[in-house]
Amino acid sequence: MSDREKDIRDRAHAIWEREGKPEGRHEKHWSQAEHEISHGGDQIDGDDVPNLEALREAARQHTDAFIVKTDLEDADQREATPGMREQP
Question: Where is this region: Disordered (predicted)?
Answer without folding.
Answer: 18-49, 61-88
